[in-house]
Amino acid sequence: MGWFWDSKPAGDTYSKLDPSLKDFLDKESSSQNATTQPVPRSGEVPRSAEGASTTYRSQIGLPTSPNTPSDQQAQPSVPAESLFQDGRYAHLWATYRPQSSVEAAGKTDQDRLADVVDSYRDRKAAIGRAALENCVMEQMAEKECFSTGGWKKMMGMCRKENKDFNRCYTMQSRFLKALGYLSNTYATADEEERIQMHADRLYHEMLAREKAIEQAEKEGQAAPTFAPLMQQDHVVQALGPESAYARARQRAKDEMLPTNLSAYPPEKQDEIRDRLKGLNDWQKEVEMQLIAAESRAQLEYAEKVKATMEEERAHRADRRERGKETAGDTIKRYWGWKQ
């Protein structure tokens, strides 16, 4: 039987085998093909679709064709969370549901409304953290003043450093809101970083303009004129055409929303006029842009709340039609809530 292990067999070796050996090989091939083949480990001999070793089958003249497309389609599928993408343990994953779908299915209407409110609060907190990062130098100056600034500055509570830090934090927060940081709920980290960097650039540009105007006044010269601080084309170029700022501006253009004081109620108009008192022309322009951007962010938040409440109202009406109205639904109906 030494020829059986010859690496270069001659002729049709399979036909020369003993009939009992042929039957054994055919039986083993069919039984191996009926079971799912595990992924071969390192060091193991690869096996073909018929189940026998490809090395030994080639030596005895058996075909070594790869798996057919039908065999690959019959392989059970598993979700991406499985560590074994070859189909192992597919029966354990048959009833698997992602965590996000389970949480979404188990949420009530109140939970969904609370999610909208929480997301808005989280964004406001994120704006505070981003503004602190942009004002880290002012914050360090204030801390150093209290630590080693001398008794004179400490007696004055480091007024200048504290004022610089507070103004930086306030204006950076407002620039972040104006650029869409508040409304950009599902932004990526890269988008948030672009907004944060552009807000810091706008703030320092504002300080440079104020310094130039102050220097011109000291020298008795006319105040220099500047282009608008937040030019729409420059902002869109810095943040990208798909940013929250670009979408808000495009929406205002499509819906032809007013951008002057007439867009606000009378009480809000009086408040805005009070805020504009004592500001020069370019400062008024910046203030109006910030007010408009903050209003757009609040409008987007109000629309999300309205959509959630409309969905909750539809659910209450559906439960009432099916005769499964809850006690809370009944109370809301008697209180005059719209169906």
From TrEMBL:
Comp. bias regions, Polar residues: 30-39, 51-76
Region feature Disordered, mapped onto this chain: 1-20, 25-79
Pfam family name, one: Cmc1
Transmembrane segments: none
UniProt keyword annotations, A-Z: Disulfide bond
Family stated for the protein in its record: Belongs to the CMC family.
Protein name per the record: Autophagy protein
Lineage, uppermost ranks: Eukaryota, Fungi, Dikarya, Ascomycota, Pezizomycotina
